[in-house]
Amino acid sequence: MSKRIQIGIDIGAGRWTDKKKREIIRSRIDSGRAVIDAFEKAWARPKILIQASAVGYYSPRSDEELEESSPSGHGFLAAMAGDWEDSIAGAASLGVRRVVVRSGLVLAKNGGVLLRFLRQFRWFAGGPLGRGKQWLSWIHRRDETAAIRFLLEREDLAGAFNLTAPGALTMKGFARILGRVMRRPAWFPMPAFLLRLLFGQMAQETLLAGQKVLPRALLKASFRFSYPDLELALREILR
Q: What pTM did the predictor assign?
């Protein structure tokens, strides 16, 4: 009987207990190894493999500008993302074009992190998380899907690509623009100590930390963003 593999357990769903962290890692590493195993056994392999990674690969770096050539960072998320990417690195030696997309916060109306912010702002209780100085690298969902299609069709492209809008900004800037678009105040920050109390290490590495990630490889390949500006993106999403 084949082993049942859980794929991509949500890193933002609750506290990171030791058990939860092991499950998060297994859900990625085991699936990556299963893909390579299937490729090795296949008589006809696909031409391309697109792997979904994330900007957590870099870990928080204060105000440092991070691009695809920047090394992996430290901490649980960075180690997990690095191991996840390595688990499928063997695809290239099998003649498969491998593309790794390191996505930022994908903005959409009906799901993801943005939905949680919308609830707060609608009740006039919106604001940044913690002090709001952490960088937030985001991308409109339409640009996310357009970039993946672009990479799928460009047979000359391979390797890592940051899927983030060119206009990264801080959490405080994000909250201010969201408040302006929704015509709501952005004066009520969520205290850092409360987030740490509720979510532990997960809050420290995701909600209260960030990285300034730039899509330089995509721009060099002449990809054009439809929503490079956050206010433009939010107005389209919330219109």
A: 0.90
